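Morning, I've got a small favour to ask if you have a moment. Here's the protein in full, and shout if anything looks odd to you:
***
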Amino acid sequence: MNSFYRFWISLLIFILNFFFVSESIAQQQENSDSSLLREFKKYNDSVYFYIENDLTKVDIFYPKLVAIGKKLKPDYLHAEFLRTQAYYYRLKNQKDSAVLTLKKIIDILSPYPKDSLKEISVLTKTYNLLATIYLEANLYNQAIINQYKSVLLAELIHQKFPKDEDNNHYLSWAYSDLALIYSYTDDKKKSQNYFLKSISFSNKNCSAYNHSINQFNYGVFLLDIDEIDSAKYYFEKSLANFKVKSDLSEMIAVKLNLAKVYILKNEFEVAEQLCNEAIDESSKLGFNYYKAQGFLIISDLFLKNNQL
């Protein structure tokens, strides 16, 4: 594929997970040691914060989180710790360990109480991460199966809490992730339908940030099917919103995809400027994946420019 939202979308899903964990941990009752809860929340939040903002600092907080996690009871909060651990394994390219850890969560929380938001929300994100890992391994059927499970659980959350914006984030991004997976198959129509479903749902039920992510993801899909002007429209809409709150990793990803748009439109100076900005910002924050993608796009730019 010409664009690259596989890493991007999974990263954003976990921004949501980090946010929702912060809210729900305060309500956790099973682990009675309040000091332990505070320590867990502190280091769990720190790990997610630096995953989003500066990958070079993740390893400072992760060992402390593991030490706390070993003290937790095998319940909802322990499952949250395991999910963070699985994401860390994935970040380190230890995919087998990540899958085994996620399956432990399913064993802990299944069968889940049908009226328990905490367990359902953790399982929703667990199946989502499993789907992401299978997608990265090009195991599309497995990815679809697990993401459908995530969608069904997200829809259950929405049925029980239809007016809760935080919960609605789950369903919005669950649709978007399913669209992403289908975009890697031959079923582009189903992919587009789920992207549009996520945009429509987030426009009515979610925050501007959530809606902007869906717009960006749809823009990447449009770029991949060569609808260049439509892709540019959705990228620019999402970038404007991300700039409002200085969402750094999101802005980098949008700039890189916009650079590809301008290359296709033979506007090389604009494309080069966007790439250089993205590379500089990625270097400062330790986002090596985005930095590498920036250099690849620069290479494509010079190659195409020299051919004209």
